[in-house]
Amino acid sequence: MSTMTLPEVDTRPETTDQTDSDEPKMFHYVRKNKIAESAVMGTHVVALCGEVFPVTRSPKPGSPVCPACKEIYESLQPGPGAE
Questions:
Q1: Which InterPro entries does the record associate with it (predicted)?
Q2: Nearest alpha carbon to residue 28 among 68, 61, 56
Q3: What's the CA gap between 72 and 53, in Å, rounded?
Q4: pTM above 0.70?
Q5: Contacts of 69 (CB under 8 A, 6+ apart)
Q6: Where do runs of H (alpha helix) occur along the chain?
Q7: What beta strand segments (E) does the chain contain?
Q8: How far is it, in rounded angstroms, from Cα 69 to Cα 7?
Q9: Helix or strand or coil: residue 27?
Q10: Tens digit of pLDDT for each residue in 64-75?
Q11: How far is 36 from 55, CA to CA, in rounded Å?
Q12: CA 68 to CA 20: how far, in whole Å?
């Protein structure tokens, strides 16, 4: 098994799961540079937890975050220029 460093670890939550009320169940962390492309082109993104989905919504403060994504995100080393 080998270890791979993720480029551009600056991420933010995005949604995948939808309920009957069209409210997201959970948001996932994805690479920031893929969010706009997915939202405009409909391409799929890969969350830190491995879930694959198209970006359809933006998170609001207090939105639930995928526990696996959050754990992975918090374990990542800060990128260059981070303080």
A1: DUF3039
A2: 68
A3: 18
A4: no
A5: 13, 28, 29, 47, 48, 49
A6: 32-41, 67-75
A7: 11-15, 27-31, 44-46, 52-54
A8: 16
A9: strand
A10: 999 999 999 999
A11: 8
A12: 24
